Amino acid sequence: MKIVAYTALRYGADYLGWAIRSVIDYVDEWHILYANQPSHGHYSAVACPETEAELHQIAYYAAGSKLKWHVGDWWQEGQQRSAIHEYAPDADVIISVDSDEIYSEQLIKSLIQMANGTFPIVLDGHPEGFAVRYTRVPFIHYWRSFDKCVLHDPAYPARLIFPNAPPGEMTLPLRAGVVNHMGYAIKPEIMRYKWLIHGHLPELRRDVNWYQDVYLANRQFDCHPVGSEWWNPESVNPFLFMPDWMINHPFYGMKVIE
């Protein structure tokens, strides 16, 4: 059985190496799909704050000989992500890991158990645990620091793919483990660039200036950039969810990441 992971990448130096570290021991290959220009449908004349060379160095340090680096001119996010099937056509299992996603040890073990057919949790309608192509996994979202987190957002993205399974989608329960999403615990200059090219840019809320009045102001309620009743950060002990070695991340201990 061949297990590969991939990252659709344009920026993400702050967490890329840490995201890879959280999964690398469980996969045979790590594919980076690096976009020469933004692939989310929006172009900005503002240069990306991070270079391809910088990102490649980080990825190689974390993934070593397992790293496969690909460069493309994708104009849609879906095209960029789908390219993994071209680069890893013989994969039995594909794990999608964005540059700001730190997998908990429990979650990656659950995914490997699913791949091996030994997953102990029986899921409604899917007693084998991996009978369909796409699996959505639990996410929690850190807000401006490691000790504030949105814990109850029910929107779980698909991150596990069985390319040869029948079409369909299933969702893992929270007890299977979580992805620690660090995409809102980043430096303001990266957040500014992120929203210049983001696929949801046309949906950005109009009731406030989200970047100024919510993100930079570090508002503690109703924080989602598009809008979600679930996005109210709570105080957390991050090590109930993320690997202990994240204590060495340079942002750990900062009250507000700047």
Helix content: 10-25%
- Please report which band the strand proportion falls in: under 5%, 5-15%, 15-25%, 25-35%, 35-45% or over 45%: 15-25%
Oligomeric category: single chain
**Strand order in the sheet with the most strands:** 3-2-1-4-9-6-10
Given the structure, what is the number of helices? 7
| Overall body shape | globular
Strand elements, count: 12
Question: What is the C-alpha radius of gyration, as a whole number of Å?
Answer: 18 Å
End-to-end Cα distance, whole Å, is: 43 Å
Question: What is the succession of H and E elements?
Answer: EHEHEHHEEHEEEEEEHHE
- What kind of sheet is the major sheet? 7 strands, mixed
> What does the average pLDDT come to?
91
Number of domains: 1
> Helices and strands: which structural class?
alpha/beta
Give the low-confidence spans.
none
Write structural notes for this entry.
It is a single chain. This protein is an alpha/beta fold. Helix content is 23%, strand content 21%. The chain has seven helices and twelve strands. The strands form two sheets. It has a seven-stranded mixed sheet. Strand 1 (3-9), helix 1 and strand 2 (29-35) form a beta-alpha-beta unit. Helix 1 packs parallel to helix 2. The relative contact order is 0.17.
